[in-house]
Amino acid sequence: MNAPLYNAEILRLATENPIDERLASPMASVEKRSPICGSRVTVDVNVDGEGRVSEAGMLVRACALGQASSSLLAANLIGRTPEELAAARDALTAWLAREGDAPDWPGLDIFTPALDYTARHPSIRLAFEAAAEAAEIARGTK
Predict the structure, then answer these.
(1) Per-residue pLDDT tens digits for 107-139
(2) pLDDT of residue 141
(3) Cα-Cα-Cα-Cα dihedral of 124, 127, 132, 134, to 10°?
(4) How far is the CA of 113 from the CAs of 23, 62, 78, in angstroms?
(5) pLDDT over 60 (residue 88)
(6) Distance between alpha carbon 76 and the CA centroid of its chain, in Å?
(7) How sure is the predictor about 31, in pLDDT bands with cuts at 50, 70 and 90?
(8) d(CA 60, CA 17)
(9) Taking all residues of the chain, what is their mean pLDDT, rounded to a whole number?
(10) Which residues pair with 33 in a beta bridge?
(11) β-sheet bridge partners, residue 55
(12) Long-range contacts: 5-13, Cβ < 8 Å, 24+?
């Protein structure tokens, strides 16, 4: 791969998460941690009557890749259903393992340089894993 792992766009996203505070009283809160690097992402959600994420909070203590992934999640999280979040999580996991196409989530293609760095994959997945689980819990389906 010719593209650098930590490119300018990833570094920019790492500093610009649109959801940078926790919710005071979330319907669900899930923390995910990467055992490889120690990155942690906590996602809080509230859902509306249709089960769509209506509010979200985040606490991100992660490497630049985990921070960038959290920013991409946060930018498109509100209004998503638990099923949409689970599908995005599963597609991201498959793509990183080279078992599927790039996920249908805005911006995730910036992680193409990370495909060969499997030790970095858990931190990229953290926010999506936490959001999918939190939305499922908040809707009462878990």
Answers:
(1) 999 999 999 999 999 999 999 999 999 999 999
(2) 60
(3) 150
(4) 33, 18, 28
(5) yes
(6) 10
(7) very high
(8) 9
(9) 94
(10) 40
(11) 46
(12) 5/65, 5/113, 5/114, 5/117, 5/120, 6/64, 6/65, 7/110, 7/113, 9/68, 9/110, 10/64, 10/65, 10/68, 10/110, 10/111, 11/64, 11/68, 13/67, 13/68, 13/71, 13/72, 13/107, 13/110
- Note every long-range contact of 57-61, with CB atoms under 8 Å and residues 24 or more positions apart, other chains counting: 57/19, 57/21, 57/22, 57/23, 57/26, 58/17, 58/19, 58/20, 58/21, 58/22, 58/127, 59/22, 60/17, 60/127
The two tokens of residue 56 are 């979200």
**Predicted local distance difference test score (pLDDT) of residue 3:** 64
Q: Which two tokens stand for residue 67?
A: 């921070």
Q: Which residue has the tokens 């990833």?
A: 10
Q: What is the pLDDT of residue 1?
A: 43
Pairing of strands 53-61, 40-47: antiparallel
39-73 pLDDT, tens digit each: 999 999 999 999 999 999 999 999 999 999 999 99
- Nearest 10 degrees: Cα torsion 104, 54, 124, 85: -50
